[in-house]
């Protein structure tokens, strides 16, 4: 095929920084060229999803709330494994949300149901099960 009928497209996987030459004749076979490992969820990501099943996202928390305060607010529902308020790395100020991790999924569910929409430090908070972080793309650098 002539070069004018082809176009450069990003590689279908993010494992390398390359481009694939896609032509009308090979576009259907492109999936076959992608390694199976690149088409499936990475094993580390799947394991992290299992670990985070008892982790809650807590949004709308007061700026002055500390990780210890957050832990105390959720301890009535069971053993809190970890509680963290997320801070801006440049300013050091709270970003207004945090995470609470329980030892047991049932305790996390009970806490989620009871605390969603309740007030902590005078602010109404929203509580949901935390979603796993998507894998980060390599942005270059050193």
Word description of this protein:
- The chain has five helices and eight strands.
- With 142 residues, it is an alpha+beta fold.
- The strands form three sheets. A four-stranded antiparallel β-sheet has the order 4-5-3-8, covered by helices on one side.
- Residues 2-51 have low confidence and may be disordered.
Summarize the structure.
By secondary structure, the protein is an alpha+beta fold. Helices cover 25% and strands 27% of the residues. A four-stranded antiparallel sheet has the order 4-5-3-8, covered by helices on one side. The chain has a two-stranded antiparallel ribbon with strand order 1-2.
Mean pLDDT across all amino acids? 76
Give the N-to-C terminal Cα separation: 39 Å
Largest sheet, order of strands side by side?
4-5-3-8
* Structural class determined from secondary elements: alpha+beta
**Rg (C-alpha, Å):** 22 Å
* Major sheet attributes: 4 strands, antiparallel
Please provide the ordered H/E string of secondary-structure elements.
EEHHHEHEEHEEE
Percentage of residues assigned to helices: 25-40%
Hey, roughly how much beta strand do the residues contain? 25-35%
Poorly predicted regions? 2-51
The gross shape turns out to be: globular
Number of strands: 8
């Amino acid at each position: 095929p002539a070069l004018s009928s082809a176009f450069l497209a990003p590689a279908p996987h993010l494992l390398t920084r390359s481009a694939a030459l896609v032509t009308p004749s090979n576009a259907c076979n492109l999936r076959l060229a992608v390694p199976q490992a690149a088409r499936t969820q990475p094993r580390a990501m799947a394991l992290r999803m299992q670990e985070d099943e008892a982790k809650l996202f807590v949004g709308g928390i007061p700026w002055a709330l500390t990780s210890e305060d957050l832990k105390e607010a959720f301890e009535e529902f069971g053993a809190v494994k970890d509680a963290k308020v997320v801070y801006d790395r440049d300013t050091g100020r709270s970003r207004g949300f945090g995470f609470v991790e329980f030892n047991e999924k049932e305790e996390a569910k009970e806490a989620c149901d009871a605390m969603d929409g309740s007030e902590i430090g005078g602010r109404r908070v929203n509580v949901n099960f935390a979603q796993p972080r998507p894998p980060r793309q390599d942005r270059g650098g050193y």
